[in-house]
Amino acid sequence: MKFELLPFALSCLTAFIKAESWKFNVVSIKGPSYDIGLKYNNEVLKMEPSEFPLFTTTIESGSSNNYKYVLLDKDGNVVEEEENERTYTSETSSINEVYNRENKVVDIPPLPKVYDPLFKSGTNKYQEYDDSEIYTLYADCIESEYNDLKYGPFVNNEKTANCTVNFITRTETYQRNATLELIGYDSRKYKKLSWKFKLSKKIFGRKTLKFRAGANEPTLMRDKLSVELYKSVGVPTYSSAYSRVIINDDVYGLYNIVDTLGTNWLSSIIHGNEKAHTGTSYKTYAGASLEYLGETQKDYSIGSYKLDEIDEDDPEANGNNYYRLAHFAKTYANWIDQYQNDQSQAAVDALENFFNLESLLRQMVIESLTFAFDDFWANSGNYALYYNPEQSKYQIIPYDFDGTFHGSKSSKRFDKDYLENPENCINWADHARVNEDNYFVGALLNHDIIRNRYNVIMKDTIDRVFNVDSISPLIENIRNLIEVDVVWNFGLIDELDNEIPGYVNHYTHEDFIGNINYDRVKYNPSVNRNSADFGLKQWIKTRSEECQTYAVNAINGEYNNKTTTTSISTTAATATTTTTTTTTTTTTTTTTTTSKSNNTNTDTPTSTSSITTSTIKKYIPTSTVPSRCGPEYGACAREGQCCSKYNYCGTSDAHCGAGCQSEFGICNNNNTTTTTKKTTTTTTTTKKTTTTTTTKKTSTTSRKIPTSTVSSRCGPEYGACAREGQCCSKYNYCGTSDAHCGTGCQSEFGICNNNNTTTTTKKTTTTTTTKKTTTTTTKKTSTTSKKIPTSTVSSRCGPEYGACALEGQCCSKYNYCGTSDAHCGTGCQSEFGICNNKPTTTTTKKTTTTTKKTTTTKKTTTTTKKTTTTTKKTTTTTKKTTTTKKTSTTSKKIPTSTVSSRCGPEYGACAREGQCCSKYNYCGTSDAHCGTGCQPAYGLCN
Ligand SMILES: *[C@@H]1O[C@H](CO)[C@@H](O)[C@H](O)[C@H]1NC(C)=O
Ligand SMILES: *[C@@H]1O[C@H](CO)[C@@H](O)[C@H](O)[C@H]1NC(C)=O
Ligand SMILES: *[C@@H]1O[C@H](CO)[C@@H](O)[C@H](O)[C@H]1NC(C)=O
Ligand SMILES: *[C@@H]1O[C@H](CO)[C@@H](O)[C@H](O)[C@H]1NC(C)=O
Ligand SMILES: *[C@@H]1O[C@H](CO)[C@@H](O)[C@H](O)[C@H]1NC(C)=O
């Protein structure tokens, strides 16, 4: 009987030692003159600066799970504390949190693939940087050496400084000795300098860490987007992620961390083996025309070429470091001599014998589409010439893409009408190079086969990736990752050591948001050195439409009489096809195993990792917006992700812990098992009438809109601005500037500058649902006989939409369907669904009339013009007199989208006339928008 006492004794013991050791790791984003403290149970504990800027501490846990980090001065006084409370979880000890930053990992999925990669793309040891997190780098450099660099970026351009470097990732810390150098030429003109560290020992297989400042543009995305575009067409270039940079006391801000194209990169990315024999490589600066100038270095020493990597074992070079450059230039010159008047395949074959033509043509397409005015084609620089000993061929490798997505910047190097003339897509850089040099590219494009291949690549690239639909998700994901750090970064420039010479830009959060979308940042010399003439999406839209016209015409022989069959040899020149399958009803079973990350500490089983197996039957549509979820988006698209209270998908604690929305993904704490099986087949045929009416806007729009609970945010997803007197911008931010209160200002969610007399053109789209079949297999056959029409808009309900289409859903006060407390609790609208889990058998007689003001509208003529690249199509002239009356129950009003370029069930109809709504819910006029999958309910279709 003795043994029976044992379990009892153990449980007593467990209760007694319930206090656990909790470990905290946090990265400071301030200089070394500050420390970090842990605020727990209202006490502040100074943390240990283990490897600055990483601070750690361990405490015995108490009753509360909540804590915060605070900023301390050197006397230990609290200077500032974090805005948000944190919650300790089993994950906390194993990650490096960042002061004043959410624990965020944003998966950045690659762009759609146009072609398979031409080269190997990495090894186990040398992988692309992880762009789902933001790294932090701190360098402690010898002050005098570092001062020489920062105060004399041009004077002391060959100098270096000795440093120790701490490089911190989400889970690791690396400490190295390193030498610091300045990089770039133009980038030295800016106060926020660009840097390179040569390390004593590799990090991530790299001997060098390179940090590009992107000081000249307001998005910090241009370089990264170009990198992803090259990847999409299979052209090798550096990988790129984001990092914060602090050197000594200088907090520089957010940078792109990129690879250098040295031996380690070449062996791993080009040859797929870190032990591969690599060849000689040259870096180039403007003026590297590739003309043959002689055999040795002195012939080429005009500042355009620099030997980067030398192959000491090159059997042909005989110790001449410039042999490979000279050899290539000479071979190319000979090729021109022999084949310039030869349009046959033999000319192409001869070139491909010694040169990787396919790689360059793909690169040229991206350069034309992004208007890369500082790279190979337009500026004969920023590319490497590499002799690939494995293939015995030369190749060109692009790098440094900050001069992209800007257009011509009115430079005389480019034609004035560059955006009006589709042929600009191939002749854009004819006069752009130093001395209008057109030697290399001119000789290439002289061949019809080569030119045709360029045209085909351009068309494939535009069809598959270079369009707003395909690139926007990437832009939005990067925004999600960097937005907070970008704003922090902008604010640092005036706090930076003001003896550092150089230009500054004072960009704002609005500049950032506007410029990743459709807004330019105007030239304003009192504030900024650099304007940005095109928003990223605006540029992509404009250029893709122009070049699609070019490519289609060119392929149809409009620009050249000869139609030659293309034959460029390549290992992977065929376009990859992606098949998208869309299923209406999803029954997903998610099994998630949450285990502690594999850290070095195997001896601390403080809390046995809980294995959560949650089975979720989703009858909620899957979100089509990357990383977004919640009542407005649907369930997280990826398996195993949690939907945070702010409607973002992810796996961190912030996503899966408090406020996690179990209807839209998994959650840490709750096993939600819903066993309702349901099959819904809906066939909807829609008829559309578009009428443009000119209405007088009446001033008082008193709809009950909730006040936003998210700082500075407003709009359909957040509610009204919380502060008095603020305007809600078209991008859903609160503020008082013109950008907030002027064009696009949303009067429902704040005040606006508009005076009441302004006449606005409003688009009304009427959709008539003619047929609807719903097959439901449900356990509980609740007889819900509603006189209210069923909503045809996914997840929407309420006076404007009707009842929730799916059984068992509640209609929230904001007119969204769902099953959470937010939907079924306070404000739940029983006419349009169930409330508090009680089905509404009450047959509502109340036919809610929501038509606000009925204005007799003027006769208007809408002329819709749809232009496809080759043929002018359909000119529909709809003439209609509408005296708007309260219409019958079947007639439903689809709201006009308030989100720029977005449409579809979650956004409404395209705001602009004559636009189509693509299957991915973007507005536009291309075939991709108006062709297969086009949604007639939300815009035009072919
Ligand atoms: C910097 O490091 C180099 C070797 O890496 C060394 O030769 C030099 O003396 C160092 N300079 C200082 C000031 O420590
Ligand atoms: C840096 O160099 C010093 C002096 O050579 C050496 O003692 C130290 O261990 C090195 N640190 C690292 C992290 O390599
Ligand atoms: C085709 O060639 C003929 C004669 O060389 C020329 O007159 C004509 O303009 C060309 N057509 C196009 C579309 O370039
Ligand atoms: C942990 O490490 C083991 C062995 O290296 C590996 O099989 C497993 O996938 C790792 N788990 C995680 C979560 O990384
Ligand atoms: C778990 O469920 C309880 C009620 O069952 C609820 O109060 C709590 O908020 C839920 N937690 C999460 C993370 O969903």
TrEMBL record:
Chitin-binding type-1 domain location: 626-669, 711-754, 794-837, 900-942
Keywords tagged on the record: Carbohydrate metabolism, Chitin-binding, Disulfide bond, Hydrolase, Metal-binding, Signal
Matches recorded under SUPFAM superfamilies: Plant lectins/antimicrobial peptides
Cofactor: Co(2+)
Annotated region (Disordered), positions in chain: 576-610
Protein name: Chitin-binding type-1 domain-containing protein
GO molecular function (one): hydrolase activity
SMART domains found in the cross-reference section: ChtBD1
Disulfide bonding pattern of the chain: C642-C656, C727-C741, C810-C824, C916-C930
Residues spanning the signal sequence: 1-19
